Amino acid sequence: MPELPEVEALAAFLRENAVGHVLARADLAAVQAIKTFDPPLSALGGLEITGAGRHGKFLDLDVSGLHLVVHLARAGWLHWRENLPTAPPKPGKGPLALRVHLDDGNGFDLTEQGTRKGLAVYVVRSPAEVPGIARLGPDALQIDREDFARLMAGRSGQLKGALTDQTLVSGIGNAYSDEILHAARLSPFKMADKLTEDELVRLFDAVRATLTDALQRQAGQRAATMKGEKRSGLQVHARTGLPCPVCGDTVREVSFADTSLQYCPTCQTGGKPLADRRMSKLLR
Ligand SMILES: [Zn+2]
């Protein structure tokens, strides 16, 4: 899933390649992707793209005061296309959700792999009209240490859930929360409101360092190469069974109904494996 660094890099890419161009036409290929009807998608046609930015994990294209807001969900992505075909795409077939044509014949496709569709497109007059944006907590790269400590102290629940809750702090998802907790040497199951002063400092510094580092690696990447760049920088996320780059211990996993987390026991949990209900069910 694209998180803060990837969405920020996509926004930067669009600032360089799309801003200043007229949005000629937007073709909807996946009817369920669009979540708004007023203004209609067609209202964007013929308007100049004047900006591209990010709210948490939402991408925001400013089209002369109207906003095309996109949430890429779990398996969505943006593909820059040169010389797009002019014929409208066939709806409901394949991964294409939305195709945006610019006045110079280039443009981009929003696509989503898999059968569970979550990619969401909004056309609004203000980004705050998107419910998911209105609910966002402070941005993970903007929040200062005092506010971060206050939010964590007020949260009863595990760190993994706290870091990925967009209403608490926005921009961090499943991958970077694993990476942040590994960098901070904290268990994903530790309670957010039970952190010591030292642990809070470590966690805050890890948020900054992990996201800044990922952003620097993504900067200047073409949209097509960002995913590979993200994967190459990961220490524990999606690395179950591989050695931890810090200590050499084996990276372990905890599975949930539709997601999983990865961690290093030596670095994060005093060497103890965390309970994994699915694994123990399988072994019973
Ligand atoms: Zn380790």
UniProtKB/TrEMBL annotation:
Its cofactor is Zn(2+). Residues 235-269 form the FPG-type domain. Residues 2-119 form the Formamidopyrimidine-DNA glycosylase catalytic domain. InterPro entries: FPG_cat, FPG_N, H2TH_FPG, Ribosomal_uS13-like_H2TH, Znf_DNA_glyclase/AP_lyase, Znf_FPG/IleRS. This is DNA-(Apurinic or apyrimidinic site) lyase /formamidopyrimidine-DNA glycosylase. PANTHER family: FORMAMIDOPYRIMIDINE-DNA GLYCOSYLASE. SMART domains: Fapy_DNA_glyco, H2TH. The keyword Metal-binding applies. Keywords: DNA damage, DNA repair, DNA-binding, Glycosidase, Hydrolase, Lyase, Metal-binding, Multifunctional enzyme, Zinc, Zinc-finger. It comes from the Bacteria. GO terms for biological process: base-excision repair. Belongs to the FPG family. It catalyses: Hydrolysis of DNA containing ring-opened 7-methylguanine residues, releasing 2,6-diamino-4-hydroxy-5-(N-methyl)formamidopyrimidine. It holds the Pfam family Fapy_DNA_glyco. One of its GO terms (molecular function) is zinc ion binding.
